[in-house]
Design a protein that fits this description.
This protein is mainly beta and 164 residues long. It has 2 domains: 86 residues, Nucleic acid-binding proteins (OB fold (Dihydrolipoamide Acetyltransferase, E2P), Beta Barrel); 67 residues, no CATH class. The protein has no helices and 13 strands. A 7-stranded mixed beta sheet has the order 4-7-5-1-2-3-6, with no helix packed on it. The N and C termini lie close together (8 Å).
Length: 164
């Protein structure tokens, strides 16, 4: 199971990241330098398998949230360098959460409960419909509004199943 953690901030730079493996991989990896409101900096390594919500192109000056697996090994350097699993470019009208959702569709931190309708798109990362229940899975949830209760409840605009 993926232990999703996130870092949110503004992109300071986008550069190529060299893996040193072979010439065939050159240009396939990017590094996003991101700084948050408190001044903390993180470098996200973006690979060909990194999922970009709505295939948004990210560039310098964009406000993003990067999700990574907190259980994955990380080199002990500063600023930290995380392998990005998901990158979401912020918009003023949507919120996102990547987490494990249990059989009641409540996130692992107990902060969000999903109320799905027959019209809620439940998709795989490749955009194809997911035809089973999204319960007991890692999900990326896109929503606009939620209640103020605990857990907050929302009817998502889109649910993306993260098959690992």
């Amino acid at each position: 199971m993926v232990n999703f953690q996130s870092f949110e901030g503004i992109v300071l730079s986008v550069s190529e990241f060299y893996t040193g493996q072979n010439a065939e991989q050159e240009g396939c990896y990017k590094q996003l330098e991101v700084v948050d409101r408190s001044g903390a900096t993180v470098n996200f390594i973006v690979s060909p398998t990194t999922f970009f919500l709505d295939q948004e192109i990210v560039s310098k000056g964009d406000w993003i949230t990067g999700f990574y697996d907190a259980n994955a090994p990380v080199p002990l350097i500063y600023p930290p360098r995380y392998q990005a699993l998901i990158i979401v470019k912020h918009t003023s009208y949507q919120q996102v959460k990547a987490d494990y959702f249990d059989s009641g569709l409540v996130s692992s931190d107990g902060q969000l409960k999903l109320n799905l309708t027959p019209y809620t798109p439940v998709l795989l990362t490749n955009g194809q419909p997911f035809l089973r229940s999204p319960a007991n899975r890692n999900l990326l949830v896109v929503y606009s509004f939620s209640t103020k209760s605990i857990p907050a409840q929302t009817t998502p605009e889109k649910v993306i199943v993260w098959c690992s």
